[in-house]
């Protein structure tokens, strides 16, 4: 027995020695990384091993907007700013030339961080869809299949469906106004954008589903899980977080199971020669059928894109609309100018046609200015496959470039008085922002759904302004909730009244 304990003791000591050597080796490797990259300007690391991860964790804990930290770092350290994540170096780039060089080129792929939203805690989420695909050929095939369904010409043919869903929101707002009550505009916008993406993209009327709020909750859960998965590398290893992780996985399952059901039902109906809606899903399935080959992985990618569109189509536009309403309540002069334009273009018409939207020029400016101050998806990243020079600073192969439109949109060198809400920045005759404004990203990987999103936003805002007055209720804050996407923290609770038109 004594011999056994001696052997056990020596085994434990040997394992501890190996752990010590491994830790020492990792520390030496970290020192090498620091020496290799520290010539790039950047804030002091919080921690030798963790780098700037503690800063991200503090922001998560305190409910701060981490993008304000990026803004501060850019001001202090310049247009190329180093950020350390353990052994990974991320470079925050605010140089317009650098942004143009990398985002406009297909040779800079999305980096490995996108795998963390492709899979959430071991559960497939966005997979290898359009947003997350790193392989260019895989991405290009998907884009080729999806493009026709999101063209302006095809969306124009869906205008009646857009208008019908927007009218449902007007009915709800009429009830609120009749009762001279208050309502959370964020909550209402979430509801209408969910209706829009379900009906126009997938031909599903959510009114026929017993509890459609499960989808809103699932989207909120998965986005929150995505933030923790990206910013806290230890999150999934804490026992106290397991109940939340379980909820996130169940939300992923719900969204993917829903997508599987809707896609299979549509394919079956098309095979049987049944009448099917002329919506985005039908167009995608038809285009996919023209491909030379569709593998089982391609079918899985279609499901990945279902989840991507379902979330992006609901969450981003709802948040933009809520931020827009919030700013209009703070700027009555801008709101009055907007009312005049809507009255001139729309008048008292109940049905708004596609051509009307193109005439709402000032409304377009207001929506663009909203996204400058409050870009719903603030940033994107690209891997650097070869040594690259940006703004005179060499970025070595293997680094990751981070582009943040929240940061550049609030920088004095790009926008005068950047915290002032001023739609005239986007007047047709004003100089175009030069690679410092990209709420839908830029280049070949720019957001496929931006035409869809802005059609929807313009239609809803035009109807809202045509028919109602809205005033922000007392006690509302103007804080931003950073939850993967940016949203108004207070929910933008407003009192709603019927608008009195001059006759």
Walk me through what this model shows.
This protein has 503 residues and is of the alpha+beta class. It is built from 18 helices and 13 strands. Helix 8 runs antiparallel to helix 9 and helix 13 packs parallel to helix 18 (450-467). The radius of gyration is 25 Å and the shape is globular. Its EC number is 1.14.14.25.
Task: Give the helices and strands, then pairings.
Layout: H1 2-37, H2 53-62, H3 66-77, E1 80-85, E2 88-93, H4 96-103, H5 115-118, E3 119-120, E4 123-124, H6 136-146, H7 152-156, H8 159-178, E5 182-184, H9 185-202, H10 213-231, H11 242-271, H12 280-289, H13 296-330, H14 332-345, H15 354-359, H16 361-373, E6 379-383, E7 388-390, E8 393-395, E9 400-404, H17 405-409, H18 450-467, E10 468-472, E11 480-483, E12 485-488, E13 493-498
Parallel strand pairs: 2-9
Antiparallel strand pairs: 1-2, 3-4, 5-13, 6-9, 7-8, 10-13, 11-12
Helix pairs in contact: 8-9, 8-18, 9-13, 10-11, 11-13, 13-16, 13-18, 14-16
Binding site for heme: 447
Keywords: Cell projection, Cholesterol metabolism, Endoplasmic reticulum, Heme, Iron, Lipid metabolism, Membrane, Metal-binding, Microsome, Monooxygenase, Oxidoreductase, Steroid metabolism, Sterol metabolism, Synapse, Transmembrane, Transmembrane helix
Membrane topology: Single-pass membrane protein
């Amino acid at each position: 027995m004594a011999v056994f304990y001696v052997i056990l003791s020596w085994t434990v000591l040997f394992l501890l020695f190996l752990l010590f050597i491994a830790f020492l080796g990792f520390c030496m490797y970290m020192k090498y990384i620091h020496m290799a990259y520290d010539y790039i300007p950047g804030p002091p690391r919080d921690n030798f091993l963790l780098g700037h991860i503690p800063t991200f964790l503090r922001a998560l804990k305190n409910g701060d907007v981490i993008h304000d930290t990026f803004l501060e770092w850019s001001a202090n350290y310049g247009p190329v700013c180093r950020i350390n994540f353990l052994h990974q170096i991320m470079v925050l780039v605010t140089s317009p030339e650098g942004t143009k060089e990398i985002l406009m080129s297909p040779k800079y792929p999305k980096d490995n961080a996108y795998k963390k939203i492709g899979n959430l805690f071991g559960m497939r989420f966005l997979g290898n869809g359009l947003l997350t695909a790193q392989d260019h050929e895989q991405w290009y095939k998907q884009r080729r299949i999806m493009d026709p369904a999101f063209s302006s010409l095809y969306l124009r043919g869906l205008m009646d469906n857009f208008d019908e869903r927007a009218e449902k929101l007007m009915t709800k707002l009429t009830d609120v106004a009749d009762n001279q009550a208050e309502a959370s505009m964020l909550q209402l916008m979430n509801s209408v954008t969910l209706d829009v993406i379900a009906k126009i993209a997938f031909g599903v009327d959510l009114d026929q589903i017993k509890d459609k709020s499960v989808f809103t909750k699932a989207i909120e859960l998965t986005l929150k899980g995505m933030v923790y998965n990206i910013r806290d590398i230890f999150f999934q290893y804490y026992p106290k977080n397991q109940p939340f992780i379980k909820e996130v996985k169940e939300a992923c399952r719900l969204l993917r199971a829903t997508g599987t059901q809707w896609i299979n039902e549509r394919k079956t109906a098309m095979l049987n020669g049944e009448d099917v809606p002329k919506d985005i899903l039908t167009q995608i399935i038809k285009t996919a059928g023209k491909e030379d080959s569709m593998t089982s992985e391609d079918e899985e990618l279609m499901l990945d894109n279902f989840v991507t569109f379902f979330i992006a189509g609901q969450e981003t536009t709802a948040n933009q609309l809520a931020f827009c309403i919030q700013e209009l309540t703070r700027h009555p002069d801008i709101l009055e100018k907007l009312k005049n334009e809507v009255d001139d273009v729309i008048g008292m018409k109940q049905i708004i046609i596609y051509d009307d939207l193109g005439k709402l020029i000032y409304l377009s400016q207001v929506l663009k200015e909203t996204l400058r101050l409050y870009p719903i998806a603030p940033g994107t990243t690209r891997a650097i496959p070869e040594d690259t020079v940006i703004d005179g600073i060499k970025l070595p192969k293997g680094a990751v470039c981070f582009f943040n439109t929240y940061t550049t949109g609030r920088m004095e060198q790009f926008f005068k008085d950047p915290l002032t809400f001023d739609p005239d920045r986007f007047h047709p005759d004003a100089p175009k922002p030069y690679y410092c404004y990209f709420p839908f990203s830029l280049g070949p990987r720019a957001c496929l759904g931006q035409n869809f999103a802005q059609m929807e936003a313009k239609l809803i805002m035009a109807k809202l302004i045509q028919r109602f007055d809205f005033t922000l209720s007392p006690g509302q804050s103007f804080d931003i909730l950073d939850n993967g996407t940016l949203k108004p923290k207070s929910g933008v609770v407003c009192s709603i009244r019927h608008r009195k038109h001059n006759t």
